Amino acid sequence: MVTFVTLLPLASWGHSVSTFPEPDSLRWSDIVQLYEGRLGERYQGGGKQPGGFDCSGLLYWVYGQMDQTLPASSRGYANEGEKIARDSIRVGDFLLFSGRNASEIGHVGLCVGKDSTGIYMLHSATHSGVLIENWVGQAYYERRYLGARRLFYYRP
Fold this sequence. Notes:
Blueprint: E1 26-27, H1 28-36, E2 48-49, E3 52-53, H2 55-64, E4 82-84, E5 94-98, E6 105-115, E7 118-125, E8 129-134, H3 139-142, E9 145-150, E10 154-155
Parallel strand pairs: 1-10
Antiparallel strand pairs: 2-3, 4-9, 5-6, 5-9, 6-7, 7-8
């Protein structure tokens, strides 16, 4: 079952965004504004622009609008940033999953919320296009979860 989550202010998720003291860090509210406008767009394999995104293409486009270059494929996240334990995932971390028929990274999402019942992921999925859903407890994602990576620290 797929759960669609309506965007709420971060405070309502019961989880705050980590802050980074350097002036060139990214502003989380800018990231949210960029991805909000993409919700509901269709999935397109290899898509990296509005009108059709795959999972890595969505994140590549969003962060590209902030002059950040992310890997062009989900496999490219394997050694990016800092490895994060599942119980330490927070808003802004990248979530890595194996593909349907592989043990290597085949899907990537962005943690956009976390509470006592779940971890909410922005991603582009073949079944629904660009959406936010709680992947915790979904067998499809649970058995494919490979880890999380922290690439950025965010200002509110």
